[in-house]
Amino acid sequence: MREALLRILARHSQGSGDDGVDTEICVCALSNARLDIGLPPFSGTSLPACLEPTVARALADAPRTDRDFKILLSALETLLSSSRWIKRSASEGDDDAFEERHRHALILGKGALLECSTLTVGLAVMEPKLCYPYHKHPPAEFYVVLSEGYWYREDVGWWNPGPGGVVFNPPSAVHSMRSTDKPLLALWGLSHAVD
Ligand SMILES: [Fe+2]
After folding, report:
1. Pick the CATH number of 2-191 from 3.40.630.10, 3.40.47.10, 2.60.120.10, 2.40.330.10
2. How many angstroms does the Cα of residue 114 sit away from the middle of ligand 1?
3. What are the sequence ranges of the domains in the chain?
4. pLDDT for res 176
5. Average pLDDT of every residue of the chain
6. Ligand 1 mean position, distance from CA 170 (Å)
7. How confident is the model at residue 72, as a pLDDT?
8. How far apart are alpha carbons 115 and 138 in whole angstroms?
9. 164 CA to middle of ligand 1, Å?
């Protein structure tokens, strides 16, 4: 899974222009990450039953046109059966229903299935017609886009990377995403590496 993900990110990195430094940060963090089998207690809870059809539909629609995406999705499907799920709390002004209409499966990171101190990787799932709160954080971030959906970054605006697309966010850039009339599915990673 790591090798497939690295190839997907590296392919995008070659044509990313101004995003090259942030891309490199994420690729290096993933390449150098030490992964250990996670031990309980894990973070998060089980997936709510009401979101199971959303996850199943999103995985069924995810792009498998490329060997690396087939490897990635096959690994995710295996890991999801044991994954724990977390949610982002809604802030003032957010859609009241937001919290119960999305989840993130923790794949790598502290308290995740695979323990890792330098990288957090999760799978975001959102129900149709939902907007993720605008937010920012110090770590650089990547998304491997696995569905239709719109992404926002403060210096770019809204755009649709398309299934199979890759998004990079520089440290502390305001960003968001929103689903279309279908579920949104994306693998994300936050680099905590220090030099
Ligand atoms: Fe983010």
Report:
1. 2.60.120.10
2. 20
3. 2-191
4. 96
5. 92
6. 10
7. 97
8. 21
9. 18
For ligand 1, the distance from its centroid to the CA atom of residue 134, given in whole angstroms, is 8
Cα–ligand 1 centroid distance for 133 (angstroms): 9
Q: Which residues of the chain are modeled with pLDDT < 50?
A: none
